[in-house]
Amino acid sequence: MALRHLVFGAAWAGSAVAASVTCASNLPLSCQNTTAVSNTCCFNYPGGQLLQTQFWDTNPSTGPSNSWTVHGLWPDNCDGTFQQNCDASRAYTNISAILAKSAPSTLSFMQTYWKDISGNDESFWEHEFGKHATCISTLDPDCYTNYQPTQEVGDFFTRTVSLFQSLPSYDWLSAAGIVPSKTATYTLAAIQAALTAHHGHNVVINCDNGELNELWYQFNVRGSVQSGTFTPVDPVGSASTCPKTGIKYLPKSGSSAPTTTLKTTSKTASSTKSSGAGSTPPPGGVLSGKGVLSVDTSSTTGDGFLISSGAWYRAGGTPATYTATPNSDGSTFSLSSSKGKCAILSDSSLSCGSSVSTASGFAYDGTHLTYQGSAKFYAAASPSGQAQGTVFTSTKAVSLAIAWNPQ
């Protein structure tokens, strides 16, 4: 499978993610440079291999029973070694208070999906920031123009959450028939194949006493962690700790569905209210029924919506009503608007209309639409005024996600 180049934004930021500096687009990927790069505000060094790590805790259970939870985002030195606790002056002890002001939606998401097994979430978040975030060079306070104390805290947690949202491990495993069970066991090869099919590279799969409990997805980054491009890569350092066969994937005892709801800006909330939207989005899976599609960009949640042609529009008005219809494969659904069926065309653009003969199959990760395993969509530019923006699945200048708001 070809590499997926992912430009992640802050769907749950609650405020704009501040870029460290303006970074050139032709910078080398971290860990893949052939000459020294002096500007470590645009190049993650020495910790250029970024690991998004996830937990599956069952004893006691933490987080929703149909989702893994966040462990952290760790910078490794491209060879499996790593630094830790790099700046004692930024070992903050008030992460919740900082995020409540700078990124409240990120904090809300973390309160469901970034859980401590002992129940002390704040201590867990402080540990992850102090040990790992202070060793990410692009988050250094010197990288910010007019730096405000703790500004990098919201950036780190928002980016980690955004990355986690793009890696729906539970859904990927479930689609391959690997589901929590008190009696079934699975092979390491089958778990690896299910995850690699979406991530494009091997994932470190860890077990505790033969029970599946942790995943490490590894990336190199072009630019800063705050606003750069994350590219999946093969693992370095520690190998998977699970046995080859007989792996248990025990069920959790927690809630079967996420308790968080989609947040929108007042502009979109006003627009969708008149069309009946605003109900709590359903959990991940196959959608059915009517809803509107709002757009989340890297800087704003609820930044406009899709009109009936499938184009992105931001200038107020009423979003189009879309109908989601489950497909016979049991894992995807089709979309249609008043214009007609919706499909991803040969040029990777989204279009809805009478000229579309066969609708494309979409899925849903609990917040955003996905297409072929990815929740990332793109546009050449952010539309302004009365302009409409074409939505693509291939990489363009603007990264976005599409949220479902049921009617």
Automatic annotation (TrEMBL):
GO terms for biological process: RNA catabolic process. CDD domains: RNase_T2_euk. Its EC number is 4.6.1.19. Pfam families: Ribonuclease_T2, RNaseT2L_C. It comes from the Eukaryota. Residues 252-293 are annotated as: Disordered. PROSITE patterns: RNASE_T2_1 (PS00530), RNASE_T2_2 (PS00531). It is found in: Cytoplasm; Vacuole lumen. Gene3D superfamilies: Ribonuclease T2-like. Residues 254-279 have a biased composition (Low complexity). One of its GO terms (cellular component) is extracellular region. Keywords: Cytoplasm, Disulfide bond, Endonuclease, Glycoprotein, Hydrolase, Lyase, Nuclease, Signal, Vacuole. It is an enzyme of class 4 (lyase). Residues 1-18 form the signal peptide. Residues 287-404 form the RNase T2-like C-terminal domain. The active site is at 71, 128, 132. GO terms for molecular function: hydrolase activity; ribonuclease T2 activity; RNA binding. Belongs to the RNase T2 family. Rnase which modulates cell survival under stress conditions. Released from the vacuole to the cytoplasm during stress to promote tRNA and rRNA cleavage and to activate separately a downstream pathway that promotes cell death. Involved in cell size, vacuolar morphology and growth at high temperatures and high salt concentration. This is Ribonuclease T2-like. It comes from Trichoderma gamsii.
